[in-house]
Every structure is written in C-alpha cells, then in structure tokens.
Specification:
Elements: H1 2-21, E1 25-29, H2 35-47, E2 54-58, H3 65-73, E3 81-85, E4 95-97, E5 108-114, H4 118-122, H5 127-131, E6 134-138, H6 142-149, E7 153-157, H7 160-168, E8 174-178, H8 182-191, E9 197-199, E10 203-206, E11 211-215, H9 221-238, H10 240-256, E12 262-265
Parallel strand pairs: 1-2, 6-7, 6-8, 10-12
Antiparallel strand pairs: 3-11, 4-11, 5-8, 5-9, 5-10
Amino acid sequence: MIKLLQRMMAIGLLTCSLSATATDLTVIYNKNEPKNFISLLEAALERTKSEGGFSIKASDTTFGTARAIDEIADNTGKLHILTRGSNIDEEKKLLPVRVPLDKGLLGYRIMLVRKPDLPKFAAIQSVDELKRLSVGQGSRWPDTKILEAAGFKVTKAYYSAGLLRMLTEERFDMFARATWEAPGGLADATKQGITDLAIEPTLAVYYPMPRIFMVSRKGEGPTLAARLERGLRAMIKDGSFDRIFTESFGPALEAARLHERKIFRVDNKFLSPDTPFEDKSLWLDVSVPYSAGAKKP
C-alpha cells in the first residue's frame, strides 16, 4: 500500500510538473484587425499547442492605435496583440515578433495618378525625378514620415476619400498606395464620380516596412512572442504560410506586376536595425513574376 501511494504521488507530481511547463494563453486582438492576420495568429498558436492551449477573441471595442499600444504596453488585459508596420519607436514600448506577416509587401507602393499624367510618369528614370513631384498621404499614416524623411514633398489629409478628390483637383501629383489598396482606391474614386484617375503601371516606390505582430513586454507577452515566432517559421517551412499569403494578397500582387516595374528604393529611418533582412525565406522576391496559382502549396 505504501509503495502504491508513493507511485501515485510521483505520478501526481509529474503531472503537475508537465502542466507547469505548458502555458495556456488568452489572446485578445483589436476587432478591426484584418482577417488574414488573425488566420496567421490562430495557425501559429495551433502549431505550438504542445507548449500550451490557447484561446483568441476580438476586443469588445475598437482601439485607436495610440490607445492600443498603451493597453498592450501596460498589460491591462484588454488587448494582447497588434499588427503594425515595424517602427523603432513603437518597439521601445512593445515586443516585436520579427516575422513579416506580409513578406514585406506593405512597403511596396504603387501610384494612383491622373490619366493625362501617365506619359509623364512612364518617362521617370530615377527616384530624384520622382521626388520633383508631390505625393498625397494620410496625416497620421506612418508612410508619411518615411516619405518626408526621404525627401518627398507630401500633401496630407485625414481621409482617403479627401485625398482622392485632392488628386483629381491637382493638389498633388500621385497618391501612393499598397498593391492591394490601389484597386480599391480606384473603385472608391469611381463611386465618388471621379473618373480621371488610373493606377500607374510602370514604377513603384519601396521602403522596408514589414507588418509584424507586436505584444507586451510584460506578463505572458514574451511567451506569446516566442510561440508566434516558432509557429510562423514552422508554417513558412511547410508552405502553409504561403497559402494564407496567396489567399490574401495573390490577386492584387499578380495584377500589380511588380517584376515589370522600375522600383525606387528609399530609406526608412524609422525601421529597427534588428529587422532580419538576411533571412531570405521571410521576404517576397519581386524580381520574378508572381503567379497566385503557382504559389499555393
């Protein structure tokens, strides 16, 4: 009987020890986060479920960027994770997971321009020539600071709808958008009765600004960050990351035909020096044609 009790106690201690090594995570994300990034969040945690269970849910309210950063940094429990374009100042408050969720695609910008100006843009051969023209951007967008620091003349407004009207009114020369945003911008212009705009087909601007997960440096934040990085890298290795990427960005990326464009690179002075450019598996290669069908595993 004594030996049986000793064995039962040993089993109980082992069970407690195993439970202590696994951490069950509750992850609340901002309710306006794009669905594809939530798919990556859930899939990455599923890949690391041997390290503990998890539950994810949307926040009860939509947090503005500044409030969201503060809630996560202070570990209030109202919000645990945010997706942001990598920014060194925000990374002083939050812990970054340095796996680009968009393979760096956020930093590739194509232009909405007035149709009569298309030949002028097609003739541009250098970034210095492009800087002689003015670009429209959102007043609070992180891109605005990047472009201004790089020497672009930037005209600002709070909303995209206003920028579309300002472009057709010749208040500036081009409206820089992400590859997946440009077609929607053109459709929004048409709804406003604006019909003289087009997506410029010959050039793009690139500044490195990968979209990443950011979590708290306190509490379970470091555990969450470690699990996400391991899970995302496992997904990259087995091809499931590419499947979600293609479902999210494939059609727009294929239509943008970045491999045929003159791509002008500008510095991002707000990017962390710890950005893992040396790991080529994390980044999109825009020098080759992108086929949404071919990229599916």
